[in-house]
Amino acid sequence: MNTNASNQPSALTDAATFVTLHEVENLIARASILPPVPTAVVHPCDRRSLGDALNAREAGIITPVLVAPEARLRAVAEQAWLDLAGCEIVDVPHSHAAAACAAQMAGRGEVRALMKGSLYAGEYLGAIIDPAAGLRTERRLSHCYVMQIAAYPYPFIITDAAINIAPTLEIKADIVRNAIDLAHVIGVNRPRVAILAAAETVNPRMQSTLDAAALCKMADRGQISGGVLDGPLAFDNAVSPEAALTKGIVSEVAGRADILVVPDMTSGNMLARQLEYMGDVQSAGVVMGAHVPIVLTSRSDSRRTRLASCAIAQLLADHQHHLALTS
């Protein structure tokens, strides 16, 4: 993706990056050449979540460890004609125990990623943030959607649309850091980060514009690194060179953002869902900020979205593994 200060909308970090990441779907192909990542699949006790885990196994992306009540799991598999042969099963009494057990397995290094099954997101995340699991870092957990839409020339990240309801400035700084880290792993060396608000000028009565300005100054002072930030930017200024030009905005980020940082979870969730249901979008999602990547998908997400989410988790796990070897 573009890393120079020109307002031309196309150039990427390099041609190889463009070929690899032009479509979110190609993340699956990139991940499939890596060794499958051992992944605890938490309570996959319905046809869709169990099928998705087995689908990711068949694609060579994960080695699933199914953490669930075994009798219930086998009943689901039998009813759905799904083959559990070769899958490790950790028998637990219920979904709460499954979440706790899987999180602790990840904390001990027995698995290197987590994948949500048919339990509620709050129950899943609650076990992950429990200090007993040992998965927390100095970072706040945040969710990233990686999206590709026909109307935009390259993939982009929306964050945070799933975890942090009304983030403070401090939390937003971690949200930005997490998204930049993800961008680096999927091949964007110097992501352009747009801090979104309802207007592109700082308004003391609009907290999102104040936070945007503060985040940009934090980047100037080295408190946030690895990308180039600009904000506040309205959505049109962030993604449309024409809109940015009309508003007289001269910016390396405006009109070609790689990362869209939303003011709060409600606005982010609405934006992501609008694109998913009305924009012919390819998407994937992962939670950043823990010691292992966390796949967090909605029950309404497509099978392809779930597979792509596993692919991103695999890329992250592989990156973390190499960092650990060199540290």
Could you explain the architecture of this structure?
The protein is of the alpha/beta class and 327 residues long. It folds into 2 domains: 13-136 and 290-327, Rossmann fold (3-Layer(aba) Sandwich), CATH 3.40.50; 139-288, 3-Layer(aba) Sandwich (Isopropylmalate Dehydrogenase), CATH 3.40.718.10. The chain has 12 helices and 11 strands. It has a 6-stranded mixed β-sheet, with helices on both faces. A 5-stranded parallel β-sheet has the order 3-2-1-4-11, with helices on both faces. Strand 1 (37-42), helix 3 (47-58) and strand 2 form a beta-alpha-beta unit. It starts with 14 loop residues before the first helix and ends with a helix. Mean pLDDT is 89; it is low at 1-22.
Task: Give me the secondary-structure topology.
Layout: H1 15-21, H2 26-32, E1 37-42, H3 47-58, E2 62-68, H4 70-80, E3 88-91, H5 95-107, E4 113-116, H6 121-129, E5 142-149, E6 156-159, H7 169-185, E7 192-196, H8 207-220, E8 228-233, H9 235-239, H10 241-246, E9 259-261, H11 265-278, E10 281-288, E11 294-295, H12 303-326
Parallel strand pairs: 1-2, 1-4, 2-3, 4-11, 6-9, 7-8, 7-9
Antiparallel strand pairs: 5-6, 5-10
Helix pairs in contact: 2-12, 3-12, 5-6
